[in-house]
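Structure in, sequence out. Go:
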């Protein structure tokens, strides 16, 4: 392993000082590679290069961008995310090495020299890190990469197109997923206005108004075999707020996630202080002026108010939350998952991530402000990403994000105050954009409610999209994403058509929809009462790798990838029902129990379960169909006759339930491009469900005797 010499490297962007290396060593986890980590002098920009053994290198570079605001140079190379996504190994399989950067900043802090310049965080730091990696690769492998690819999901999906748009010649292809944003002219330096700031407040309000039990009932009505009526049993105000949530684009079929705020709550905690600082009048007017719920209808919020002081019992790390029996209950599950991701198995696993507070009574606690009043950390302001009992997991902006509860000691006094959060729950009414998702809040083009300036996202999210770029973009979006809603997946499609015209869009852009996929792997999603996430959501990692292969073939060999046909009406993305019409690469499937979406039977009575599945033309063949009968996610039955030769199949099996209950039988259908039934990679999944309601035998017999 020869030493890497950076003395001859000349930065392209004069903002950056000379590059330096701090770590250069061989590593085995999560897969074998040479690990090189360093930064650029006089800046906060850091980088990490993951260089697999030379026998894997065929001349490509892959650069995944971290989600959220970014801020970490080592995200997908180690810890829980490295093990989960295996991006080093995927880069090696595809003939390349992997690059990461902290995208110009540490945590949520701005670079002191750049300040709030969104161009640094949106694309410039990533571009200079990519250029340097090519210089290093030429020394390590003997040649620089001939093609380079930038990609990412969520915040990484937000910024990866900015890289292609604003740094021509650095990358050849881009594969963003699950993101969106505002459109402006090429070369713009504007921070982004994003409907998510308003729409997440709308989601939190529905969560608050309905509560967990009624959201579970809502999810059941919208599940296969349910009534399909989301408004059943709701009061007038609850109906209005849920309807507004749907109109703003929340995905049908994923209503359970309204009760489980994950990435959405992070957005609030990262922006809460900035929103108040930029428009304090809104947060005051909400409680004091006509036209706002807090003033006009205080009964809708008063019962949830909390404005109390308490004292710290203890601080808690990600390790505490995930390994202590005190926090093993289901009420801590989402908190445990997010803490593990933040900790990612490294030093941050021991970080003071949450706090237990005594002396509080009542109030709605998710999203509430937690301000440290005494002690070493006095004055620090955080917000609850999750709350269970008297335990609050918190985040914040700037130093608060970096420090969390560092320096907080037992006995320190804190103020717990949710007045800002309750005002934020009605933010959408008073911050209407020109996005069609907010048209229902206008009459004759005029807003119904008093208006305030629409806020912009943090500079860490980069600049507005232009849709103008050199290269190819293959955009992936998920139909069941509760953090980046399907409606937002249509924005970049529109940007490209505006900038490049229909002909340019056909040459350079495709969108692929993934049905039944959430923002992250289903292992991160809490279970519903009668079905785990693995029975209603899919593992999309196979779609990701196959799509990257297709992007490479498009860029390097001119082989056009299949896009997914869709329509967008009233805040909702609609996909054609047949595989042939839909396109893309994911199988399309439907399931039935005794011939319908719902079967009512007695204990011991056999149920015939049928699934019909088809793969879009040119996308491969079916290699597996499995059944999970009871919502546990075990998939114990597999149709042995499937041999990978058919692109369309209808198969059935029979199952008997031995106890009463409601069961969702799930067929998991998997395809593969070459029909390889033994393939471990690039397995493309979909699911189909049917409901079976099993009555006790005595009750079923009584119904039969009366003709019911």
């Amino acid at each position: 392993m020869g030493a890497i010499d950076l003395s001859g490297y000349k930065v392209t962007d004069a903002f950056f000082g000379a590059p330096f290396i701090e770590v250069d060593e061989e590593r085995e986890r999560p897969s074998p590679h040479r690990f090189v980590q360093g930064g650029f002098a006089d800046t906060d920009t850091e980088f990490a290069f993951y260089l697999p053994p030379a026998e894997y290198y065929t001349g490509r570079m892959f650069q995944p961008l971290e989600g959220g605001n970014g801020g970490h140079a080592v995200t997908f190379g180690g810890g829980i995310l490295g093990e989960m996504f295996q991006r080093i190994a995927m880069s090696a399989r595809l003939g390349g090495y992997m690059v990461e950067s902290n995208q110009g900043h540490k945590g949520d802090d701005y670079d002191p020299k750049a300040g709030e310049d969104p161009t640094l965080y949106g694309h410039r730091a990533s571009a200079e890190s990519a250029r340097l990696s090519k210089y290093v690769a030429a020394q390590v492998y003997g040649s620089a990469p001939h093609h380079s690819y930038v990609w990412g999901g969520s915040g990484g999906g937000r910024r990866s197109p900015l890289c292609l748009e604003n740094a021509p010649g650095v990358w050849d292809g881009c594969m963003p997923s699950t993101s969106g944003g505002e459109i402006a002219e090429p070369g713009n330096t504007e921070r982004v206005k994003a409907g998510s700031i308003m729409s997440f407040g709308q989601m939190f309000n529905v969560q608050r108004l309905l509560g967990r039990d009624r959201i579970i009932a809502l999810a059941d009505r919208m599940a296969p075999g349910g009534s399909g009526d989301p408004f059943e049993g709701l009061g007038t105000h609850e109906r209005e707020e849920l309807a507004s949530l749907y109109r703003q684009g929340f995905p049908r079929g994923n209503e359970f996630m309204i009760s489980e705020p994950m990435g959405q709550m992070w957005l609030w905690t990262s922006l809460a202080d900035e929103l108040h600082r930029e428009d304090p009048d809104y947060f005051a007017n909400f409680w004091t002026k006509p036209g706002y719920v807090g003033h006009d209808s205080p009964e809708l919020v008063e019962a949830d108010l909390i404005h109390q002081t308490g004292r710290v019992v203890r601080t808690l790390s990600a390790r505490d939350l995930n390994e202590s029996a005190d926090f093993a209950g289901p009420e801590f599950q989402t908190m445990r998952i997010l803490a593990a991701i933040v900790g990612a198995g490294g030093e941050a696993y021991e970080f003071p991530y949450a706090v237990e507070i005594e002396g509080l009574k009542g109030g709605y606690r998710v999203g509430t402000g937690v301000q440290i009043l005494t002690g070493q950390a006095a004055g620090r302001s955080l917000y609850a990403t999750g709350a269970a009992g008297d335990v609050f997991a918190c985040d914040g902006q700037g130093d608060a994000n970096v420090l969390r509860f560092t320096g907080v000691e037992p006995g320190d006094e804190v103020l717990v105050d949710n007045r800002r959060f309750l005002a934020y729950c009605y933010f959408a009414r008073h911050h209407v954009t020109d996005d069609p998702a907010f048209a229902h809040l206008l009459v004759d083009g005029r807003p119904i409610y008093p208006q305030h300036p629409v806020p912009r996202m943090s500079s860490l999210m980069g600049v507005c999209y232009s849709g103008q770029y050199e290269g190819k973009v293959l955009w992936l979006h998920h139909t069941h994403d509760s953090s980046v809603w399907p409606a937002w997946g249509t924005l970049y499609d529109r940007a490209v058509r505006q900038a490049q015209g229909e002909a340019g869009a056909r040459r350079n852009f495709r969108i692929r929809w993934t049905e039944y996929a959430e923002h992250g792997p289903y292992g991160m999603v809490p279970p519903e009462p009668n079905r785990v996430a693995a029975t209603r959501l899919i593992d999309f990692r196979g779609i990701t790798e196959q799509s990257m292969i297709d992007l490479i073939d498009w860029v390097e060999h001119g082989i056009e990838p299949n896009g997914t046909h869709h329509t967008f009406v009233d805040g909702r993305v609609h996909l054609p029902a047949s595989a042939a019409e839909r396109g893309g690469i994911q199988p399309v499937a439907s399931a039935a129990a005794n011939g319908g979406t719902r079967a009512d039977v007695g204990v011991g009575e056999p149920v015939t379960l049928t699934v019909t599945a088809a793969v879009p033309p040119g996308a491969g063949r079916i290699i597996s169909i499995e059944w999970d009968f009871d919502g546990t996610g075990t998939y114990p039955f597999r149709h042995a006759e499937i041999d990978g030769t058919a692109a369309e199949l209808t198969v059935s099996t029979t199952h008997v339930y031995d106890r009463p209950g409601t069961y969702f039988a799930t067929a998991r259908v998997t395809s593969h491009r070459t029909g390889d039934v033994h393939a471990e990679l690039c397995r493309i999944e979909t699911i189909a469900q049917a409901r079976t309601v099993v009555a006790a035998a005595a009750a079923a017999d009584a119904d039969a005797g009366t003709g019911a």
